[in-house]
Amino acid sequence: MKTPLLVFNDNGIYCKVANVYLDPWKPVDFAIISHGHADHSRYGHKKYITHHTNVPIIKHRLGDIQVSGVNYNESFVINNVKFSLHPAGHIIGSSQIRVEYRGEVWVFSGDYKLEDDGVSVPFEPVKCHAFITECTFGLPAFRWTRQAEVFSDINSWWATNRDAKQTSILFGYSLGKAQRLLKHLDTDIGKIYTHGAIENMTEVIRPMIDFPETTRITRETTKKELLGNIVLAPPSAHGSAWIRKMVPYVTASASGWMAFRGARRRRAVDRGFVMSDHCDWQELLKAVEATGAEKVICTHGYTDIFSKYLRTLGLDARTENTQFEGELNESDTKLEKEVEV
C-alpha cells in the first residue's frame, strides 16, 4: 500500500520524504508554519519556514527562533519534495502549504476564509489531489453576512454609544481579528483605544498595513478620555479589573460563534457581531470544489458532519485529529497576561 505524502502522527502533519512537519504541535527539527496563531506556530522547533510577512509576527510571539521567510508562490525544495506557500486569507501572513512529490500534490489549508477582509492577501485555490481542510464552522447553520454590512452595524453601534456618553468595548483576538476590526472602524465617530496586547501586535503589523491611529490604554488613561470612544480588547480582558475601570461602558464581541443563539448571553456581552476569520459552510464547500481534490481530510471543528457530506458528493473524505483549535484558541492568553494593562 502506498504511503501517503502527508501523514498525521503524535508531533503533527508529517512529510516523511522531506522529513518536515507542517504546523507541528510538538518540537521538531524542521517546521513549515501556515500562520501566526498560537495553535499553529509553537515554540521549540529548531528551524522554521513561513511567509515573510509572518516572520515578524512569530518572532514577536516566540522570541529568538531560527526562521526564514518566503514569498507566495515561491517554490523551495527539500529532499526532492517541492513546497510552496499560497494565500489563505485567514489573517496577515497566513498561507496554505502546497507539497509536491513525483507528480502528486497535497495542500494543507491551515486556517482560511474566502472573503477579502482588506488586511490579509485573499484566498487563492490551489489545484491538488488531496486537500487538508479545517472545519471550524462546518455546519450548514453557519452562513456569514458580508463584511461591509457587519462593519456598518459595528460603526452604528459605536455611534449610538457615543451619543449616550458611553465607552464602547469591542472584543476580538489580538492577532487577526483585532487588526481586521481596526482597519474598518470609522474614525469620524471618535478615537480608537487599544489594550496593550492588541497594541503590541498591531505595532508589529503596522509597517505592512495602513491602519488608523490608535492610543494605548495605560494606568494614566482616564474614564473621561474614553467616553464616547471605542476600545479594542482581547476576550481575556472581559470581566477583569482592567475593564471595570471604564464604567460606563457597553460591550460587544466579534466572532463566528455569535451566530449561535445564546452565545452572547453565555459570553456576557451586550452585543454580538457575527464575524469570523474562518469559512462558513458554503465557503468550505466552494473551496474544496475549487481544489479539484478527490481526497479530502477534515481537521478541527465539525469534521464528522462535513466529511460525511463530502462523501455524499462522491469524494474520498475522512477526518484526522489535530491540536489545532480554530477560533477557540487564537487569543494567546499568555501574551495578553504579560503586557502592562
Automatic annotation (TrEMBL):
Keywords: Exonuclease, Hydrolase, Ligase, Nuclease. It comes from Formosa undariae. Its EC number is 3.1.-.-. This is Ligase-associated DNA damage response exonuclease. It is an enzyme of class 3 (hydrolase). The lineage of its organism: Bacteria, Pseudomonadati, Bacteroidota, Flavobacteriia, Flavobacteriales. One of its GO terms (molecular function) is exonuclease activity.
